[in-house]
């Protein structure tokens, strides 16, 4: 009896253990349990991915808004009527919120405005001012209801943009005037000075009577007087450009006159006063032939001298433009009345060297003969810098145009 019972117990034990082994080896139930446990995590991860995609899209929109805001503020600083720094900064903040109003809720927009800043940094190099605008913007992007399951309630959407603009008066400048004071500059133009006053109206036909020509009326403006008026218009234009900068340290001018020899020059000095005085003092009835070689070389040497660079650097002008203004009513003759081609060759060699060294040359042929016109066209190097004047009005207009071109203000906007 006992052996049978023991046998039956052993059989039942073996059957139970076998069934338990099969149960524990069956993983179908485990998968279901794991899936049930992981489902919330998987849903939360998917939701978080969607949230991050939305945040990335809004960040792209915000980047475009801050880029545009920085550019607008930088442009405002160099506009015709420039903004103050505070106004430009306010403009940038308003620009960001205005752009994003199309995409954000009122709550997000308020948070964005509270966390948007703009700064304008200004640096000065002589006549050039650089404005660097930096815009920072951010707000909290709330995540969906399942994302907090992973410990994330929100992410920060943030961007930064920086743009620079420059306002410059075509750099600072050093300009040297090379002006004809030969005998033909005593000859009249067709501009009447006075119909009631008599004066010596010299022409090519009666020049041999100098200095004893009888006075006649009407009295005509002669070429040297027309030159003085024209130079005055140039100086006036430069003075206006200088006045536009509060430092008054942008423009240096010098002058030299010539007939068949170079006259004593006016050295380069700040402003136009000294040069204006020099031109005004030119004789009312000059004499002599025409030789441009030495005065052009003197102007070139003065502009390229290290002392001129030093003078500009003392006013913090690390870069400046150099100009020569050459005016004649004749052709190179030297101390004669006949054109001297070799003098043209020397003059042109100086012009070529000066342009190669970065000097801009403006030339004005005032009632000049063909050879004189040809030389001045070549000396300028480009027709844009060559002027022909056949009367006083055209001469004044030419000098004024040169002043405007030389002192032209420009705005460089970079992003």
Walk me through what this model shows.
By secondary structure, the protein is an alpha/beta fold. The termini are far apart. The chain has helices at 2-25, 28-77, 85-100, 106-114, 223-243, 273-280, 293-304, 306-313, 341-356, 370-380, 392-406; strands at 117-125, 128-142, 154-168, 172-180, 188-194, 219-222, 251-258, 266-270, 320-328, 359-366, 386-389, 410-414. The chain has two domains: 29-168, no CATH class; 172-414, von Willebrand factor, type A domain (Rossmann fold), CATH 3.40.50. A six-stranded mixed β-sheet has the order 8-7-4-9-10-11, sandwiched between helices. A four-stranded antiparallel β-sheet has the order 1-2-3-12. The protein has a two-stranded antiparallel ribbon with strand order 5-6. A hairpin with a 7-residue loop joins strand 7 and strand 8 (266-270).
Number of helices: 11
Radius of gyration: 42 Å
CATH topology of the largest domain: Rossmann fold
Strand order of the largest sheet: 8-7-4-9-10-11
The secondary-structure element order is: HHHHEEEEEEHEEHHHEHEHEHE
Low-confidence stretches: 1-10, 409-415
Beta-strand portion reads 15-25%
Note the topology.
Blueprint: H1 2-25, H2 28-77, H3 85-100, H4 106-114, E1 117-125, E2 128-142, E3 154-168, E4 172-180, E5 188-194, E6 219-222, H5 223-243, E7 251-258, E8 266-270, H6 273-280, H7 293-304, H8 306-313, E9 320-328, H9 341-356, E10 359-366, H10 370-380, E11 386-389, H11 392-406, E12 410-414
Parallel strand pairs: 4-7, 4-9, 9-10, 10-11
Antiparallel strand pairs: 1-2, 2-3, 3-12, 5-6, 7-8
Helix pairs in contact: 2-3, 5-6, 5-11, 7-9, 9-10
């Amino acid at each position: 009896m006992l052996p049978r019972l023991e046998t039956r117990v052993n059989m039942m034990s073996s059957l139970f253990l076998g069934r338990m082994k099969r149960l524990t080896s069956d993983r179908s139930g485990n998968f279901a349990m794991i899936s049930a446990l992981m489902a919330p995590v998987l849903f939360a991860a998917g939701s978080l991915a969607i949230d991050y995609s939305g945040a990335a899209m809004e960040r792209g929109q915000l980047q475009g808004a801050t880029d545009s805001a920085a550019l607008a503020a930088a442009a405002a600083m160099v506009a015709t009527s420039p903004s103050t720094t505070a106004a430009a900064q306010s403009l940038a903040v308003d620009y960001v919120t205005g752009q994003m109003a199309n995409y954000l809720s009122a709550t997000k927009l308020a948070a964005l405005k509270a966390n948007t800043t703009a700064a304008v940094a200004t640096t000065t190099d002589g006549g050039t001012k650089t404005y660097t605008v930096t815009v920072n913007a951010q707000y909290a992007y709330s995540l969906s209801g399942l994302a907090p399951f992973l410990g994330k309630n929100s992410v920060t959407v943030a961007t930064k943009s920086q743009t620079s603009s420059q306002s410059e008066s075509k750099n600072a400048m050093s300009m040297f005037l090379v002006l004809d004071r030969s005998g033909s500059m005593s000859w009249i133009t067709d501009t009447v000075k006075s119909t009631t006053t008599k004066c010596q109206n010299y022409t090519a036909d009666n020049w041999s009577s100098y200095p004893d020509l009888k006075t006649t009326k009407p009295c005509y403006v002669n070429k040297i007087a027309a030159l003085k008026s024209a130079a005055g218009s140039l100086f006036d234009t430069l003075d206006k450009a200088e006045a536009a900068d509060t430092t008054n340290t942008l423009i240096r001018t010098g002058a030299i006159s010539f007939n068949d020899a170079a006259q004593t020059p006016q050295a380069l000095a700040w402003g136009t006063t000294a040069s204006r005085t020099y031109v005004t003092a030119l004789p009312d009835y000059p004499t002599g032939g025409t030789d441009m070689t030495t005065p052009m070389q003197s102007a070139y040497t003065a502009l390229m001298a290290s002392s001129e660079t030093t003078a500009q650097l003392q006013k913090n002008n690390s870069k400046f433009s150099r100009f020569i203004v050459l005016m004649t009513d004749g052709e190179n003759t030297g101390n004669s009345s006949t054109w001297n081609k070799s003098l043209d060759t020397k003059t042109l060699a100086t012009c070529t060297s000066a342009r190669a060294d970065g000097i801009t040359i403006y030339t004005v042929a005032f009632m000049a003969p063909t050879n004189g016109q040809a030389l001045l066209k070549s000396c300028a190097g480009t027709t844009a810098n060559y002027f022909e004047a056949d009367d006083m009005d055209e001469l004044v207009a030419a000098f004024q145009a040169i002043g405007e071109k030389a002192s032209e203000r420009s705005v460089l906007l970079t992003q």
